[in-house]
Amino acid sequence: QKEVEQDPGPLSVPEGAIVSLNCTYSNSAFQYFMWYRQYSRKGPELLMYTYSSGNKEDGRFTAQVDKSSKYISLFIRDSQPSDSATYLCAIPYGGSQGNLIFGKGTKLSVKP
Amino acid sequence: EAGVAQSPRYKIIEKRQSVAFWCNPISGHATLYWYQQILGQGPKLLIQFQNNGVVDDSQLPKDRFSAERLKGVDSTLKIQPAKLEDSAVYLCASSSSGTGTEKLFFGSGTQLSVL
To answer: What local confidence, expressed as pLDDT, does residue A2 receive?
Structure first.
């Protein structure tokens, strides 16, 4: 079983829709959870990170962690065409070494 | 603030040839990473440097891949000889301290096609 699983999509929604992106993970020791956004032909950029369980909100974006079910989510409200990108969940491992395990990424397209 | 610089942007080679990629991290960033991203996959860490020392190279195929960061600043990643399965985007990233919760800054990558 892979450590981080993510549905690759693609996901196509109309502008203004609420988008839900999800990942599952296998190692209950993971504590930090990140979401990166990757535009076409660009490197990933950090969008949000959360620690342990709970929600974190930043503008139109909300990250949610449910450690009991090993499930992490990213919600995008009022989605915009500029949100069209691939969204990658990422989990650091190795203690202080700072290495990341990435999911496969979900490709999102927001249609005007 | 200048971002992470990578070159070349694209490279096409034939199998069994050699290739090298260059990365210049954000000024002052001690930690440098090379990731491999195969089409349709998430990035996979190949090697992590802290200044000019290797912290983790457990996923680097050492029979064909090598990397160096001699002066603790820029870095090169080399593949010799290349295989078809090496076709991927090679991403360089940097961070100031290398802890897991710190933001990684990625370059735009080098897209390698092995024919």
So the answer is: 65
Query: Quick check: B93 and A105 CB within 8 A?
Result: no
- DSSP code at position B80: S
| Partner-chain residue, chosen from B41, B101, B109, that has the shortest CB–CB distance to A49 | B101
Q: Minimal CA–CA distance to A19: which of A46, A47, A51?
A: A47
Banded model confidence at residue B98, pLDDT cuts 50, 70, 90: low
Backbone conformation region of residue A67, classed left if phi is above 0, alpha if psi is from -120 to 50, else beta:
alpha
How many Å lie between the alpha carbon of A69 and the closest alpha carbon of chain B? 22
Chain B residues in contact with A92 (beta carbon < 8 A): 100-101
Q: Which residues of chain A have pLDDT under 70?
A: 1-2, 94-98
Q: Cβ B104–A46 below 8 Å, yes or no? A: yes
Give the integer Cα–Cα distance in Å for B92 and B5: 8
Mean pLDDT, chain A, rounded, equals 91
Q: Which amino acid is at A49?
A: Y
How close does chain A come to B49, measured CA to CA in Å?
A: 10
| pLDDT over 50 (residue B61) | yes
Report the candidate in A32, A99, A19 with the shortest Cα–Cα distance to residue A72.
A32
Query: Using the 8-state DSSP alphabet, how is residue B104 labeled?
Result: P
Q: How far is B69 from chain A (nearest CA, A)?
A: 17
